[in-house]
Amino acid sequence: MKAFITILIIAALAGAGWYFREDISKALGIGSPKKIAEGGGTPPETPDTGTAPSTEGTPKAEDKDPLQAKKDALVAEIKAKYPKPNIRPLEAIVQDWKAIPPKAFPRMVKLTADVQFKRGETGSVTIPSGSEVKAVRMQDPASEMVLINHPSLQITAVTELDNTTFKQELTAFYEGLEEAQTQRRPHQDAPRIPHARRRPRTRE
């Protein structure tokens, strides 16, 4: 009998709790259970554990390689202190290959076409393409005709500049001068290392 009465009391309390659920939720400040289930209301706050979010694996600005940073700073300093020298372009000097300076000769070049050389007063010989000859001077700058000489046969000919590698050879030579001038400038202000003085010999 007592057990039956206990069950009735528990059932009555459960029914009252269900009936007054809205008032209980408002009193506790957690909103309606029905609204929370549907996505509304105020869900219970998550307790603060005092642990900050992990930043492990996040790259930092100071993690940059110090050696690389020092190298970049040195390169920037050298470029600022020693800018690329203002060297006159080769095209402006030779004026479309119509005004090649005399100091560009003589120069060893190769033939890019078969060229007929004079031998004596009436004789001639054809030197094949690829042979090495010496460009002596411009014979007719306006038409780009150059005087060439065969070093071993001691024969000469006048041919077009494009029948030789003169333009390529002079361009490569000038580019080498530009590179040497650019690399030499950073060392102009470098202090000279004095030679070690020899100690005077003393007689024993």
Portion in helices: 25-40%
The poorly predicted ranges are 189-197
User: How confident is the prediction overall: mean pLDDT?
Assistant: 75
How many H/I helical runs? 6
Q: Quickly give the structural class.
A: alpha+beta
State the separation between the terminal residues, measured CA to CA: 133 Å
The topology string of helices and strands comes to HHHHHEEEEEEH
Approximately how much beta-strand content do the residues carry? 15-25%
Query: Can you summarize the main beta sheet?
Result: 4 strands, antiparallel
Q: C-alpha Rg, in Å?
A: 47 Å
In total, how many beta strands? 6
Shape, per Cα inertia axes = elongated
Strand order of the largest sheet: 1-4-5-6
Write up this protein.
This protein is of the alpha+beta class and 204 residues long. The chain contains 6 helices and 6 strands; from the N terminus they run H-H-H-H-H-E-E-E-E-E-E-H. The protein has helices at residues 2-19, 21-28, 33-37, 66-81, 90-94, 166-184, and strands spanning 107-110, 115-119, 123-127, 132-140, 145-150, 155-160. The strands form 2 sheets. A 4-stranded antiparallel sheet has the order 1-4-5-6, with helices on one face. The longest helix is centred in the C-terminal third of the chain and has 19 residues, at 166-184. 9% of the residues are buried. Residues 189-197 have low confidence and may be disordered.
